[in-house]
Amino acid sequence: NTEMGPDLEEVASHNHLSVEEVIQIHTENEYLVYMLGFMPGFPFLGGLDERVHTPRRAEPRVKINAGSVGIANNQTGLYPSDSPGGWQIIGRTPLKVFDQYSDPMTLYEAGDYIKFYAIDEQTYNQIKKEINDGQFNKEKWVTCNGH
């Protein structure tokens, strides 16, 4: 979906892979949260498979949507809020990963591990609806084990 992952084809092309291979490679690993930075709740994640390493975009975007998953060189990360940015966007989560009014404010902290899952548009919209309706079962989708 080019709306959710506008740079997915660029990452695939850069690495001589299919879009499906990029998704498979990105979702098969767990990523260590090295640190939160750049903006509140932005996790810099280590452990990106070198087969999908891709340089930052030559022209940063003025707006990247909250929840966007990106790749920049040898790292992957997750935009917690709408923001400008230059990472290659390969997907988006419907989860609100940062909320300044929650305690804790993020779903993760440095030292935790994050694993991404590929979901279809129908599942994305269902999760979004459940969140908006206050019916979202966080335990079904988010496990916090610090590894």
Structural descriptors:
single chain; 147 residues; alpha+beta; six-stranded antiparallel beta sheet; two-stranded antiparallel ribbon; 4 helices; 8 strands; 22% helix
Helix content: 10-25%
Which structural category fits the helices and strands? alpha+beta
Can you give the mean pLDDT? 91
Low-confidence stretches: none
Number of beta-strand segments: 8
How much strand? 15-25%
Give the strand line-up of the largest sheet. Answer: 7-4-5-2-1-8
Q: How many alpha or pi helices? A: 4
Distance between the termini: 31 Å
- The best one-word shape is globular
Largest sheet: 6 strands, antiparallel
Radius of gyration: 15 Å
Strand and helix order: HHEEEEEEEEHH
Overall description:
The structure is a single chain. This protein is of the alpha+beta class. 22% of the residues lie in helices and 24% in strands. The protein contains 4 helices and 8 strands, in the order H-H-E-E-E-E-E-E-E-E-H-H. The strands form 2 sheets. A 6-stranded antiparallel β-sheet has the order 7-4-5-2-1-8. Strand 1 (30-36) and strand 2 (43-46) form a beta hairpin. It is globular, with a radius of gyration of 15 Å. The N and C termini lie far apart (31 Å). The relative contact order is 0.19. The model has no long low-confidence stretch (mean pLDDT 91).
